[in-house]
Amino acid sequence: MRLAMTRFVVASLALSVLCFSGMAAAQANYPDLAGKKTFEIKRGFNKDALTCIECHAKKMPGVVESWKQSTMSHAGVSCYDCHTVEKSSPMATQCKGLEGTDIYISPMVSSKTCSRCHPQEVKQFLKSGHAKIASSVDADPKRAALLKLAYQFEGAAFMDNINVDVKGALTPKGMPPYNRASRASGCQMCHGTQVEMGPDHKPVKETWPGGVGERYPDGSIGNCTVCHTRHNFSIAEARKPEACASCHLGPDHPDIEIYNESKHGQMYLAHGSEWKFDSPPDAWEPGDYTAPTCATCHMSGIGELTTTHNVNERLKWDLMHKKSVIRTGVRGDGEKGDKLMQKVCINCHGATQTQVQRKVLDNSVALYNKYWAGAVKMKADLKAKGLLKKDKWSDGFQELMYYLWHHTGRRARQGSAMNGPDYAHWHGFFQMFQVYKDMQAIYNYRIKNNKIEELSHVMSSGPL
Ligand code: HEC
Ligand code: HEC
Ligand code: HEC
Ligand code: HEC
Ligand code: HEC
Ligand code: HEC
Ligand code: HEC
Ligand code: HEC
Predict the structure, then answer these.
(1) Which residues sit with their C-beta closer than 6 Å to ligand 6?
(2) Which residues line ligand 3 (CB under 6 A)?
(3) Residue 81 CB-density burial (10 A; 0-12 exposed, 13-18 middle, 19+ buried)
(4) Interstrand relation of 84-85 and 203-204 (parallel, antiparallel or unpaired)
(5) Is the preceding omega at residue 209 within 30 degrees of 0, hence cis?
(6) What's the whole-number mean pLDDT along residues 286-307?
(7) Segment 222-248, tens digit of pLDDT
(8) Rounded to the nearest whole angstrom, what is the distance from the C-alpha of residue 322 to the centroid of ligand 4?
(9) Ligand 4 atom at minimum distance from 332 CA
(10) Quick count: other Cβ atoms within 10 Å of Cβ 87?
(11) Please, what sign has the CA dihedral across residues 64, 67, 73, 79?
(12) In the Cβ-directed half-sphere of 18, how many Cα atoms lie within 13 Å?
């Protein structure tokens, strides 16, 4: 504690020296700059930048047309600024139009390029679950258990899977060659993966383009186009729920479905076309809209809150994993998140309704956790008696246990967090109750007869 204090004093001393000299310099030019910013936007394009635009307008008109609609094109940001790289870059190539010149480009553009002009957004983004954590499920050897989940348990390499045994870990050398179609068309498009490069500096093995946490050959992380699609990079688009819906949907995290059935979604669908979506950051406030979108609650500035690209910042609970706990560490700070999220609601709701909603969420988490604890206990009993199959997918009990948390349990928790009563109950708590009763029936049978039933009678698509 004492040490920390000393360091704090030293740091602030150093800061004040810096501020002082900074202020002196500023004061020479401007009398009062406190709280103001200076930046210079250079309009117009240099000769090299113009050649990219002119040729691509003929060869790839689609790209140029959408870039022209972007605010960045008006500020003079062009193909040249985002796509040119050093010759020494592991991603350096030349397109047809550049052969014979000393200009090198890459079709890959990560958050690192954006951070030259948007350092704040990128810094926040990199702290969120959308960055490194998102692609860890596809690319991080430390999460081998998850790789097993991807390749073995969720079917991403089942047919061609020669080397991953069901109970053991991955082979140390990594994955054997196999048909990556399921992985490349699924997991990677949402989560992202490590881009693997061929000798010509182009991506191989269907590892690019990828989802939100895509990892690039130069070590940078993050694909900003998942919410701001290229080449308009629009703030208005990212504020609409459609920007999140391409990933946050379906049986295991139906956030767009939940939103659409909530009162907030009802208002967006009924009145959204009259709302204003292009106000400046931190000045997009109630009045521009009358009900929140995903962005309003999770990212945008509203009332006292400023815009953040760290979607974990306003969350209390972890509502995706097997047991729901208050967020800590890389998953965020749940105690703080709880308070921040309430600051969103109070712009449009009274304290009573806001408190009721938080209570409903806490109680839903507690109820779900009770189901999960019961399932864990049954499983432990079965394991002790040797009554579990090694292959989870041909063992009805374990298959149901997966649906309990991954499908029905997430729907109950997320439905209740975001006010979608049909998902909270009929697709959520009701089906959890059904799944749990079936698990109990299998459990009782196995304990009574001291054997595993021959054929799993679980329909895999059952609790969809
Ligand atoms: C603000 C930065 C930015 C500007 C300006 C920009 N791009 Fe891009 N471009 C990107 C990003 C980001 C991607 C997606 C890269 C990824 O997924 O790794 C991309 C992807 C591409 C791709 C490859 C994807 C595909 O669909 O084939 C091409 C080609 C491309 N841009 C051409 C252009 C051209 C031509 C211009 C100028 C008219 C331009 N870009 C301007 C950021 C930019
Ligand atoms: C004279 C025409 C011409 C000029 C000038 C030109 N390009 Fe291209 N570019 C093309 C054509 C044609 C393609 C598609 C074929 C290919 O990939 O080589 C292409 C492809 C690309 C791609 C996608 C590469 C890939 O692997 O998919 C990017 C990115 C790109 N150009 C950026 C640029 C940038 C940045 C400049 C300016 C520094 C530029 N181009 C100048 C014609 C041109
Ligand atoms: C060379 C500097 C530069 C780079 C590199 C750059 N930007 Fe920008 N960006 C700007 C400027 C300047 C503006 C403000 C334009 C305006 O509002 O007139 C802007 C605005 C934006 C906006 C707000 C658009 C809106 O609708 O108001 C988004 C979103 C954005 N940039 C995303 C990106 C992304 C994503 C990347 C990387 C792929 C990127 N930028 C790279 C300079 C840059
Ligand atoms: C390209 C796919 C994609 C898009 C688009 C997307 N997300 Fe995500 N999001 C993910 C993935 C994948 C995760 C899980 C990350 C992980 O492994 O924890 C995630 C996680 C989250 C989380 C939980 C944070 C965590 O990881 O603990 C929130 C909140 C979230 N997203 C909100 C949003 C919002 C709001 C939008 C739209 C403005 C959005 N997302 C758009 C893919 C996406
Ligand atoms: C449609 C987009 C999409 C696809 C396809 C997808 N995911 Fe996800 N995944 C998400 C989103 C969004 C979340 C965040 C869910 C939440 O908050 O409940 C997530 C969460 C996860 C999590 C929990 C977060 C963490 O970091 O522990 C894991 C693990 C995961 N996905 C693995 C996979 C694997 C493996 C595949 C392919 C077999 C896959 N996902 C396919 C969108 C997707
Ligand atoms: C999960 C979706 C999502 C992703 C991923 C995302 N953005 Fe944004 N971005 C938004 C939303 C929503 C806004 C509007 C926030 C508001 O209402 O003020 C925004 C606004 C912006 C703005 C306008 C200024 C500001 O801070 O509001 C810039 C610049 C920007 N984003 C750059 C980026 C860059 C660079 C990346 C990649 C690191 C990125 N964004 C990734 C959703 C996203
Ligand atoms: C009215 C505000 C609000 C809106 C609108 C909203 N959310 Fe949420 N969201 C929440 C709250 C509250 C939670 C639970 C936070 C907590 O744990 O305290 C949550 C949780 C989540 C989670 C779960 C993270 C986890 O732990 O697994 C994801 C993912 C998510 N939201 C994405 C979205 C998406 C995508 C949309 C739009 C389709 C959306 N949200 C719309 C308020 C909102
Ligand atoms: C921009 C304003 C706005 C914000 C922010 C907002 N809401 Fe709402 N909310 C509304 C409106 C408007 C309604 C519809 C009221 C009606 O049914 O007539 C509504 C309805 C609801 C309902 C349905 C019950 C009812 O009152 O009709 C719940 C539950 C709810 N909001 C919870 C929340 C929570 C929790 C938050 C914060 C995480 C939040 N809202 C943030 C505007 C907002």
Answers:
(1) 111, 114, 118, 121-122, 125, 130, 212, 222, 224, 226-228, 235, 238-239, 281, 284, 295, 299-301, 307, 309
(2) 41, 71-72, 74-75, 77, 81-82, 109, 113-114, 116-118, 224, 228, 233-235
(3) middle
(4) unpaired
(5) yes
(6) 98
(7) 999 999 999 999 999 999 999 999 999
(8) 18
(9) 27
(10) 9
(11) negative
(12) 6
pTM: 0.94
Tokens 């439905």 appear where?
A: 415
Closest CA to 322 of 149, 130, 136: 149
What token pair was written down for 237?
Answer: 């688009």
Q: DSSP letters of 122-189?
A: HHHHHHSTTTHHHHHHHH-GGGHHHHHIIIIITSTTSTT--S--SSS---TT-PPP---HHHHHTHHH
pLDDT tens readout for residues 79-108 = 999 999 999 999 999 999 999 999 999 999
CA of 211 to the centre of ligand 3 (A): 20
The answer for residues whose C-beta is within 8 angstroms of residue 3's C-beta and 6 or more apart is none
Query: Token pair for residue 294?
Result: 């995903």
Kindly give the distance from the C-alpha atom of residue 248 to the centroid of ligand 4, in angstroms, as a whole number: 7
- Measured by CA distance, the residue closest to atom 30 of ligand 1 is 107
Radius of gyration (Cα) for the chain, nearest Å? 26
Percent of the chain with pLDDT over 90: 75
The answer to whether 125 touches 222, Cβ cutoff 8 Å, is: yes
Q: Read off the DSSP letter of residue 390.
A: S
